[in-house]
């Protein structure tokens, strides 16, 4: 019953507001049709000719004239030609009348202005352009919080009178937002001034026949610049495969023009566009948007580039071809409420009888369209195998062969009762048995080398109850157990281990704890604190990544940081150097760990003091290392994000700043030599072997290198006249020699000689072997 009430309320509101908007636009358009100029005659009293989304859309229409009618004209039209109900018409008339009566309100405080200039695409001034501000402030820019009245939350429907009262209130607010407009006309220099504005941010639009301007949001007291583009006209002659014209089509002229579709009809074949050069696609017949990036239709054209400047304004013949569409209608005969979402996939009909892995990315997933069917467009003709199932990752419940031919191929299937064994039922609850809702899940499977993350799409069945497809959790026979973690914003994160044959799983949340952290020391660099569960093995590391977005907070200027929603347990609490540019402490990125401490978290507001260690400067003398080379300084117990780098200067010195006390490893970037140091320390002497050549360790008989004259133990010292300095030179040589001849210098028996190698060609997009084994040689 509540749903029907809401639908009725929405319908009545839409009819009434649509009536008011329609009355405004109808009158406006009739006036604009006969207007030879772009001038707006009214200034301070120009009223809301356009309402909400419909009005904002008109502002961006191509090369459109502005229009204006006052409240009296709008009210006069409000009684004619309406299809809305009596209550809706009364509410709309009341709103318009109330708004009109307020048109004489005191605007003496509206003393602010917006200055600007209008130019063409070449930067020359455009005079005579009409500038309009609807004097509408954007609420998100007002700077003050707009508190919301909650008195109507969860109230029962009180009938049509209540609807009409709300309608009148909303319509009045909508009209009042566009009560006063300020207009101006650009002078000979293109300059204009909008006057009598409220302080704040306003929507400003420029209008001139034959020009397109982008609307701007401008704050009073500031300047806005409009750049006008000439309107481009193009006539299309759209043809179906049989040579006839469709009654209508949808034109996609590329994102540079609209970023969305344009209607074409055989009666109005001429389009007005913003850009002269674009990629053109035309669709016709049952045009539907499958998702944000794909569409389907019965007919479509091949994409083609169009340039009106060079090809002319048409008519341009566009030939449509019939699309090959596979449409699957699936009837769900199960009694599950709510139902589990269904998936439909297709693959080329297999030749053998082996088991098929439907989770592979090569399978074509059909998209659910608004009608409830599943579709895929543009499939090559041929034989396919269809599969239908519930729960992404689970095995299909039914399969059916299908042959896709020209045009539309329709298949109807019925899916029966769900196999509940395909799902792992997870209940999240607190110690007292109350359910924990709004849970997100994370999982990882432990392999021999690392923990592999698992993507999960759970189905919420009831408060605190989730069904997880077993096909997602256990993707192979080797996946005997999965580490499953559940996280909420209020209760923190709890985890459990799930075995292959487990039935229902209960994840219990203990009372959440919190840490009150005081960071002491010099905080000028900007820091964040992060708490990660301390667990053994790779699963614990995986939980650390999952918790990173929830268990981090930025350290305030007074050194305080509070971490809430932590489940009791052992945590590593660390301070990271994130800088002041970080807008939140949740993402640590490549931040450097400064200090950490392992603690047992077991209560609310548990205090913890952490001190930023004293930073030191480490000077390194790297004799024999070329200037500009980089040295790395990494903590022995740290990760890649904790390492520091410094350039070697002309004096062979490298300077590391802000190095905290501890054990470090010093190495040359890209080199193999290293040295352990303890900070603080004095000047460090670092001696490293320098790569000066690539040594030929072995040759393939009859291979490219042997044919080019290379011999075993040759030393390649230069490539293209540049001295060899490391592994990167070997990679560069292999890549270049695949497509061209590369000159090299070889040291053989103390004598230098010149050789060249290549092109050796590519295989599967990768360079072929040079026919020799090269390794860096150091000294």
From TrEMBL:
Domain annotation PDZ: ranges: 662-750
Ranges of compositional bias, category Polar residues: 487-499
Domain of life: Bacteria
SMART domains: PDZ
Coiled coil spans: none
SUPFAM superfamilies xrefs: Carboxypeptidase regulatory domain-like, PDZ domain-like
Sequence segments annotated as region (Disordered): 61-94, 479-499, 753-779
InterPro entries: CarboxyPept-like_regulatory (IPR008969), PDZ (IPR001478), PDZ_6 (IPR041489), PDZ_sf (IPR036034)
Gene3D superfamilies found in the cross-reference section: 2.30.42.10
Name of the protein: PDZ domain-containing protein
Organism phylogeny: Bacteria, Pseudomonadati, Planctomycetota, Planctomycetia, Planctomycetia incertae sedis
